[in-house]
Amino acid sequence: MADNSSNNAYWQANLNIIKVCLAIWALVSFGFGILLRPLLKGIPVGGTDLGFWFAQQGSILVFLAIIFFYAWRVNKLDAEHGVEE
């Protein structure tokens, strides 16, 4: 059984990964799709502007990438702390 400090280190590392993923998600979905949309309006992407693309498709694609990154990184973290399945 792992000691309490090892458990705390594992969960702190996991929370740091979650914080980074949430920050990226917020930047892409709210930042690029809503707040920065007027600045991105002049950049054409697929027949529309970049701000609209981020709001409609880009944020979904980035969210999927975040899911795969999180799964990969937590599997690596599990192996580092000896709690893999």
TrEMBL record:
**Which keywords accompany this UniProt record?**
Membrane, Transmembrane, Transmembrane helix
Q: Cross-referenced InterPro entries, in alphabetical order?
A: Na_symporter_ssu
> Which residues are listed as membrane-spanning?
20-40, 52-72
As recorded in UniProt, coiled-coil segments are none
Q: Does the keyword Membrane apply?
A: yes
Q: Which residues form the Sodium symporter small subunit domain?
A: 8-84
Could you tell me what this protein is called? DUF4212 domain-containing protein
